[in-house]
Fold this sequence. Notes:
alpha/beta
Amino acid sequence: ISDSFFTGELSLDGRLRYTNGILPQILMAKNKKFKKVFLPLVNADEASIIKGIEVYAIENLLMLLRHFNKENLIPPIKPRSLDSFLKNEEYEFDMADIAGQEQGKRALEIAAAGGHNILLKGPPGAGKTLLARTLPSILPNLTLDEALEVTKIYSISGLLENNPIIVKRPFRSPHHTTSHIGLIGGGANPKPGEISLAHRGILFLDEFPEFPRH
């Protein structure tokens, strides 16, 4: 087992439970030249995106014991391509559905093309928030490396939910009363903040002047 890496949260009855941060652990194991990874079955989809290392998904310790005793060998899971996770993603807010607002849409297109920040200013009801929410719909799809970067952040934050890999660019809209730790991360049990969770996506600060100056 010297070439194997084992990870997973173990329950008292010997079963392996869903574990946060699986993706960065597998990437670390791959970089450390491990050849095999054993992890919880419920994390299998998240692990299947990584190629170049054998991944074994197990339900409990008894399965692992039988595997090493050659009583019941576990087959490695088949790697999946990023395309297999891509569905015809529909956006709740699509710029194609916005009538008029040509100047605002043009500004957003320039910001999207160049990766620029943008400040939207105008009276209430002018459509600033709606326009901002349509911005992800004109951004290019995440590449595999970008998707892995984003998924790692959401994996260690426990925010993957039922998504094995993040394929849509994040859109984060923290309230102006959010603490600075909530924004930049940290805390007694350090976790990524909203800025990190918006990585490769959009960080939308609505009512920007209401945010504390610091």
